[in-house]
Fold this sequence. Notes:
The model of chain A has no long low-confidence stretch (mean pLDDT about 90). In chain A, the strands form three sheets. In chain A, strands 3-2-1-4-8 form a five-stranded mixed β-sheet. Chain A is α/β, with parallel strands linked by helices. Chain A contains nine helices and 13 strands. In chain A, β1 and β2 (about 20-25) form a beta hairpin. Chain A is globular. Chain B is an alpha+beta fold and about 350 residues long. In chain B, about 35% of the residues lie in helices and about 25% in strands. In chain B, strands 1, 2, 3, 4, 5, 6, 7, 8, 9 and 10 form a ten-stranded mixed β-sheet that branches. The chains are: A alpha/beta (about 300), B alpha+beta (about 350). At the A-B interface, α3, β6, α4, β8 and α5 of A face β1, β3, β9 and β10 of B.
Amino acid sequence: MFGFGKKSATGIHVSGRTVRVAALGSSRAGVWPLALVESELEHPFDPDALADEDRRQDLAGTLAEIADECGFDYGNACIALDRRLALVKRRPMVVGGARENHEQLEWEAEQLFAEETGEFSLDFVLTPEWGFVVAARYAALDLYLDLGDEAGVGRLDVDLAPFALYNAGECADLLPGEDFELLLYADTDEAWMMLMEEGEPLAVGSCAWDEEDEVVEVMEGAARKLLQDVDEGVQRVWGAGAGDAAWSEELAGRLGAPRSILDPLAAVDPDLLDDDATPEQRSAYAIAVGLAQRGLAG
Amino acid sequence: MIRVELLHGHGRQWPPWAGPAAFALVVCGGLYGLNWLFPFGQLIGGSADEPAGRGRAQEAQVAAADPWAADEQEAPAAADPWAADAQETPAADPWAADEGEQTAAAWPADAQQAAPAATTPAAPPVQQAVQPPPVQPQIVAPAPVPAPTPVATYAPPAPDGARQVPRRSAACQWAVRINERVPRGVRLVSLTCSAAGDYGLEGTSASEQSLRSFRDQLQKLPSEVSLSSWQEGRAPAKVLRFAFQGRFEEAPARELATLSSDQADRLFGKVAHWADESGLDGLSIKKPIAMPLPPARTHQRQKLWGTGSYQQIGAFLHKLQQVEEIAALGEVVLMPVQGGEHGWVEARLYAAVDVVVGMP
């Protein structure tokens, strides 16, 4: 009541063995980072681990330790869904308003899932040209709720990594709305991509690789798939992530576009930032920051 | 800011029996509490002393005072035009006999021979065919989109700012006929098309060879098409997926003839009748939406959802083609329900029928 509009929110991004947590505070004066923390798990955290109580407890314990050490809580937290647990399907819009398209997407989703429809939680993202059906199994969401309970999360939300990446770029006042831009978050063994047209999502994709794979080739394959409808190529690649920085640079080169760093805190007053961290290092928290930004937005 | 709401206010999914069980628990608890305050034994003993006819008399009084009760009694006697139609003209599926061997039949020609003639069938009121929309609102979160535009008046503006008058177009019919060119080993997951000629195909293929064959077929069509395919998953569950985007060549087309409001209503009634007559199941037809057009006209759109075999869908689309001067298929989405090795057996259909209506 007397906090003068101060709020805080936390974003949690787990990829492989790495847990990244971004805690942000906000007031009328703006947004600032409370903590950007990374921790390593003993084993990669995947859908099997989510369903395994011991391994989920392991992650919950790690999250609780991070909060204790950094002096924040998970009163308002958002976690990124595992790449394998969320389905994003793009569908063309039909003539009509948002409600019409919403109903149409719902109908199409029902056809796609057939008798399994009731097992999925669905939501839709509408752009002027496309509708994105986003689905996740209730069973998986329940496990995330369990994880939230075990980690002491007050209010838990889940979201998809590419949407968090978009939110991070938008809140950082990047993404000037060029004809076509590619957002890339490359971690050590997986990558997320979002193709945007004039600032609106056009396509979403992801890829993963093994040790024997040529990483940039895998990423290029995924990027070309997104670019199938784009005749003129992308004007810019926004790179983020903890993967080798050379990957995004090489991918941008192959796509014939310049690469920029997606620093999720680019719009934050520099006095409030840790001087030691470079934009590249902060970019590893792009998804976690985007998730926290969502929490701050309400 | 993009935000998807998948948790819906942290609602944990309860097992299906939990709701009824909780309800039963509450009812039992309530009855137990009531029994504690006002023992039922006394109440039952007291009511037994009342004259037997009194309860019925009270019920009759209540019924007389309750207009809904009267409606309910009358409702079963209301005339059902669909029921009458069904008695006069049994809903025969003209394709039922062919269904076993029909996957590659060219429907328009066959439909002309086998489907009942599209003379002037008694147009039943559309409301009779209306069912609740095929949606499950309980699993839908508020859409993370701008405030909904009033449905009845919205249409995307044409590039020059004016709304485009619907024109005659057979693009959607052509797109659906692509199904006849799908080679073995290729499975369509969805087919979409708009009257403007843009179409999209998504699906899976058993092999590169089948996909190449399909691509070659598509490239023979008078349309531009961009093809893309990719492997999804890892062995042994590897799947070859494809997405084709195409656009039929534009041909000069006349605007749809302008109908009066009554004519439009009758036509939409016929559309509903044709869909039913063609054998489409699970029909759902919503109230037409209207979008203003200059000068003093409206673009009315009737949306229809249903499920049927390729022949049934073809018969329905063929009927629509017979009124191409006054109605166009504005959008179509076909989502096959996979079954068997030889392609799909039936598909879910979404179709939007456009007409132009003059303002009185």
